[in-house]
Each structure stands twice: as C-alpha cells, then as structure tokens.
Design a protein that fits this description.
Helices cover 3% and strands 37% of the residues. It is mostly beta strands and 282 residues long. The strands form 5 sheets. Strands 15-16-17-18-19 form a 5-stranded antiparallel beta sheet, with no helix packed on it. The protein is globular and about 50 Å long.
Amino acid sequence: MKLLPRHSFAALAIAVTPALSAAAPTDSWLQFRGGSGTGYAEVGDLPQKFDGEKSIAWKIDLPGEGLGSPVVVGDKVIVTCSSGPDQQRLHVFCFSAQDGSEIWERQFFASGRTMCHDKTSVAAPSPCSDGERIFALYSSNDLVCLDLDGNLLWLRGLTYDYPNASNSLGMASSPIVAGGVLIAQIENDSESFAAGIDVQTGKNLWKRSRPKAANWTSPVVGSGPGGSDLALLQSKDGVDAVDPKSGETAWSFVKRASTIRRARRVTARSSSRPTASPRWSQ
C-alpha cells in the first residue's frame, strides 16, 4: 500500500491578505493564474521578500494532498485536496481570507480512477468560479459544482460518461469559465475531448474531440471580435480558439505546442487576425 503524506497546507502572504479580504467579486481571483491566465494581479503593497515566517498571515493544515491553486471569491478562499490511501476522498474547503478560519468543508468520494504519479495528486487541477458558483474538477474526472455557501448544486462523474478518459500519470488540467460556460479539457491517450458545460445544470452544451495524447495544459480565456470571450485550447498539435457557447472553431494555430502550460503570454492584434497567423475557420 502506498502511504501518502498526512498533511499539506494553504498559506497567504500577510501583505496580500487585506487586499483579498476587501475584494469585490470583480476583483477576485476566480481561476488558475487569475482571470487573464497570466498570473498577474493589480494589488499594491506586496512584500518585497518572502521569509517564510513574517510574510505569512495564516497557515492551515489540510487532511490530504492538493496541488491546485486557491481561488478567491470576495472574502472567501477556496482550496481543494484529496485524502486516503488511494486519494479517493475529495475535499473542497472554504476559508476566510481575513484570518484563515474555516467557513465550510464538503467531501465527496471519487467515482473515477485515482491512480497518479507520486509527484502529483488527485487534487492537481485548480478550482474555478463564476462569482456565484464554485467548480472543482479532480484527476478522477469528478466535477463538482457548489454555491458560495457550500451547497451542492450538481455533480458529474465524467468517467461514467467517458470511461476511457484517463492517463496513468494523472490528469491536471484546470477548468475555466468563459462566456458564462464552464470549459473543461479532458485530454488523454484514448477518449480525449474538451467540453462546454452549462454552469446551472452541469449538462454538456457541446463536446469536441481533441488530439489523443496526454496533455496537462489548462484552457485560457481569450478575446474575440467585439471583446467576446474565446476559449483557447492548447495541445501537442497547436492552439484552437473556440466559441465557449457553441464549441465552434474561431481560429487555429496549427504548429506544435507544449502539453505542459508554460508562463508565456500569446497576444493577438485588435485587427482581424492574431499575430501568429493561425488558420481561421470558414
């Protein structure tokens, strides 16, 4: 039996905490690497050095492992983790951004595969939010939707619908909300796909096949014509920009790309075509 470390932890820098606790929903950090996907936040008075002690406002032990980033919705910090010998117990925690006190916790049992590499965990994907709901996706392909008070709105075991969607190292792509639609990349060597999911019901609005290869990149919100949202899906074959409401392709960059998200930003001109000269759909 593989034994996992008993605890991991969540922490916030002390200079950041006041800004988070007073944040309005529009200023929240709602998904992996923030709303723009760049990891950049416009907040002042950040610490110049991180000393591991003086810079910590609060620190909370978690009952399991979680590699996903926290998200911040107003004065709430949402964190996920997984526990148990096979990481089958899935947790969603809500803490106060002010002092780290626990507001609520919800637990679920994984319905899909929990096998993953020792350096990752079933709670590798970061949760996300649309400001009203919280969405948590796990490597087991369990997708949970809660309201801000922790009430369960819906739950999907995607392995039941797509039994071959997995890989031996573990899934790690984080979902996003684009154009009011939840976007999930479930890409792997077998039943590889991306889906746009109705945030209110959990049902697919669309589903499209994706390259059959292990892929740990997360979708990113991009800008389309008139400032509308596009969902950017990256794979080994390139990048597809799709309409989040219909799943239709707006444009494709057909050169190869990384299957692990890197800290680079791809921009497009405000004219008709992106600077990378992708192939536009007709």
